[in-house]
Each structure stands twice: as C-alpha cells, then as structure tokens.
Design brief:
By secondary structure, the protein is of the alpha/beta class. The chain has helices at 47-52, 79-93, 105-114, 135-152, 158-169, 176-184, 186-200, 203-206, 209-213, 232-240, 256-259, 261-274, and strands at residues 14-17, 20-27, 31-36, 57-62, 99-103, 121-125, 219-224, 245-250. The protein has a domain at 2-134 and 205-274: Alpha/Beta hydrolase fold, catalytic domain (Rossmann fold). Helix 2 crosses helix 3, helix 4 (135-152) packs antiparallel against helix 7 (186-200) and helix 5 (158-169) runs antiparallel to helix 6 (176-184).
C-alpha cells in the first residue's frame, strides 16, 4: 500500500485498541509528546520534529485508523472516536500528563481528549472543529466530500486534481517529500477523506468549540496562515474565549511543524520551558511574521 510510506517507520509496533491495530512509534525520554496527524496524512509528517528534538522528549506518533500503517476501524470517524483510541494508547504505554501536538482532525481529537483526560498542554496546528457552524460551511464540506467520493470510485481525473490540491495544502518546499507520499496514496485514502468531510459537515459530530473553551491547560496555536480552507479568522472567536491560549502565526499552508520545522521546534521548546515541562532555559523566541510565498 502506498499509504504505508506516509506513516510511522517500517517495523513500528501495532497496538490493538478497541479492535483497531494502531501503528505507533515511541522513542526518546523526558516530557511525553504525542503527535497526531491530519486526515489522510500519516506520522511521517513529524519526521523533522522527531529529528530535531531527539534526546529532549519522549515522542509518540500514532497513525490514525486506515491511514499510514494502521489497520482499519469498524467505527465511524469522529474526533470523539479518535480521542477514545488515543486514550487506549496512552493507557497502554503508561503515559502521564502528555503534551499533545494535533493537526487538523488531530487537533480536534486533541481537544476532545483534553476535555476528558489529564494533559500537560496542547499544541494545535490548524485544528478542526473551532469555527462557528453554518449551512454554508456544511454545504462546502459536503461538496468536498463528493470530490473525494469520486476518487474512491476511481475517477480517472482524481489523481491529477488531488496533486494540484496538495500543492496548495502544503506549498512550502520543506513539505515536498511528504506531500509526494500523500499524493501517491490519494486513491487509497479517498474513501476516508470523503468520510471525514461528511463528518465535518455535521456540527453535532465536528464541533469542538465548547470543549476548547472549557480547557484549563496551556494551549499554543501554531497557525499556518496560508490555509485556504481552515482559515485562522474563522476560529479566532473561539480561540479568544479560551482561558490559556496563545497564537503564533507561521508561513505555511496547513502544518507549521512540517512546512517550517526549525521555527516550529524553536517555538515548541520555548513553550515547553515556559510551562515547566523541561529542565532547560527557554531559548529566544523566534520572530515569525506571515508573508506571501515567493512564486
């Protein structure tokens, strides 16, 4: 399967949680950091983060069901379902008070998890579920779901269209390798993408605003400001009502840790030192200002 190359390293163990074989990469020591990827990506999204933080944290990466190297799930895809599976991994590995990095649906799942279980802090990269629902947004989500459903049926044009889409989703050169892997797995992941976008069309399943506003732990938003779909301005109202939220804006299309890894790690290290999650002096915070990407 082409989707395998987007996920955790070959040979990573599978942990069976509620009937799902989840592929997990667990390495390092220190403050536990759990990495949750976007839909139809995989844990290789965090390769640069793992390489640049080696020896400073215990980094645990999980491939979501039916993505990367994980097995399929019999249950419907929702942030609540992903949070339940995450809880199983945390208990299985004996992790206490993790910092969770969550991107897109991984961010929505991180919020759902943190509203129920102990978490040291969250780092959210363009998370889903924080915008105000409307029929216009639901209609757009249903339209995107139909696009991916065509891919699941094997439409001849889907591969080309998906590749063009991902040049917008992950436009920065540092994401090129993983972007290529994601595009190669497009037909394999089309059905799960269709299911995800159908789910996001239903506010009862997708909406995480109440959970986010109720969070008590520190939350760092690392927003890639060139996101064409999940735009910062749509979630800003929710973020403004959160108790301990701070926002750092990055150049990128959807995943700051993948597109601007050095800047992301510098900001992450500063955040961890700030909350007392590592016995080290906080480095100087990077100055990160959004700008247009050179054409």
């Amino acid at each position: 399967m082409r989707r395998w190359e987007t996920g955790v390293p070959k040979g990573s163990p599978l942990i069976s949680i509620d009937g799902v074989d989840l592929a997990v990469d667990d390495r390092g020591a220190g403050q536990p950091v759990i990495c949750l990827h976007a839909i139809a990506h995989g844990s290789a999204d965090f390769d640069a983060f793992v390489a640049q933080t080696a020896g400073r944290y215990r980094v645990v990466r999980i491939d979501w069901p039916g993505q990367g190297r994980s097995g399929d799930d019999r249950e419907a895809l929702t942030p609540a379902r992903y949070a339940k599976l995450l809880r199983g991994v945390v208990v299985h590995l004996g992790i206490e008070d993790p910092v969770i990095i969550g991107c897109s649906i991984g961010g929505a799942a991180a919020v759902a998890y943190a509203s129920r279980y102990p978490v040291r802090a969250l780092v959210l990269a363009n998370p889903g579920g924080l915008l105000t629902p409307s029929e216009k947004i639901s209609a757009a989500c249903r339209m995107i779901a139909r696009f991916f459903a065509a891919g699941a049926r094997g439409a001849w044009w889907f591969g080309l269209a998906y590749a063009a889409c991902y040049r917008v989703v992950l436009p920065w050169p540092s994401a090129a390798r993983q972007r290529t892997r994601i595009v190669r797995a497009g037909y394999e992941n089309a059905a799960i993408l269709a299911a995800a976008w159908s789910m996001f069309a239903d506010p009862q399943k997708a909406d995480q605003r109440g959970a986010a506003i109720g969070l008590e732990m520190p939350v760092l938003f690392t927003w890639a400001m060139h996101d064409r779909i999940n735009q910062f301005k749509a979630s800003d109202a929710t973020i403004g009502r959160m108790k301990q939220a701070r926002v750092v804006k990055f150049n990128g299309g959807h995943a700051a840790f993948l597109e601007q890894p050095r800047q992301f790690v510098a900001e992450f290290d500063w955040f961890i030192a700030e909350i007392g999650g590592a016995a080290r002096q906080a480095p100087s915070r990077p100055v990160i200002e959004p700008r247009r990407r050179a054409q």
